[in-house]
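If your schedule permits, I should be very grateful for your opinion on a structural question. I have a record of one protein: its chain in single-letter code and its fold written as discrete structure tokens. Kindly check, if you would, that the fold set down in the tokens agrees with what the sequence suggests. I remain grateful for any guidance, and I place the record below:

***
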Amino acid sequence: MFRSLLTSCALGMVCIAATSTVPAGAYMQAPEHDVADSEGRLAHRAQDVVAVFKGALEPDEVFAESFLAAVPPTQLQAINAQLTAQFGAVVGVETVTPRPDGQANIAIRFERALARGTIAVAPGPEGKITGLLFKVFEPVDDSAAKITAELAALPGRVTALFAPLAVDGAPVISLGAEQPLAIGSAFKLYVLAALAEQVDRHKTGWDRTVELTAKSFPSGMMQDWPEGSPVTLHTLATLMISISDNTATDQLIALLGREAIEREIRASGHGAPDSMLPFLDTLELFALKGDVARGERFGQASESEQRALLRQLQSEIGGDRNAITPPVFTEPTLIDTVEWFASPADLRGLL
């Protein structure tokens, strides 16, 4: 499957709980006419799901109170909007296949996918839905070539790589995969790799505790922590990756040293490692982009000159974020000169 085909985690979790309200085997010993009634209710309610998604019926007309207690109408609406955005508008019911446990396997067609899952209804004439779970979304009229063409038609410079991490694995989608571009916070993967390498070589440990001394600007939350707070390397790495914490990142860069991360960049097989040198921390990047004239001089300088400019910057600000003019990102600023650069193939090699 070529597109992201994960349905809402919330839908999966709460609908499993709702489905469990129907006892397994409740219909196993039912008379034949009851089985037929159950199958009719299942088919009817499958159509009603489509009607709810189309806005033709209200959720409380279709879903049992127990279901709506777990998945309120507002959440159903949000899930419908998410599915529509990803797979197009709902079209209709493709199949309803009753199961021995009284539920049914269903397939509902969207414009660009077929949603497969299960449905359960309560016994009795009203038979409202007590469980609904979409498990798989199968692309319809989709292919790697079609997706590549859609990506290539986007404005600006577009690069994409969808491939196994093993470098000998054939890519499914490859578009400008060797072309380096500014990678934003993906640069933090190189910091993580350098840290993991030192842990593997027993030069440090995830449980090592250090004092928080670096402070940058958000994203993140550690910029609001008291200076000198004890923090483990594991916590720094976790916050750097999970919430893209810039202060955690700069603290790790200060601990590892710029040169250690630059060695990791070269060792990873980066196609143009010089474009990442000297390796900036986030506060340096903010300082250079906040003072565009300084940033332009930096971007035009040689690597040795850039290192001298960074030493001068550090002597001026001393790591104090209040000593710089923060950039205002209303549009890309020095995006081709003052950044971290890598291609999709570079990031694949790192991972």
About this structure: Residues 9-139 form one domain. The chain has three domains: 9-139, 144-175, 181-350. The longest helix spans residues 32-54.
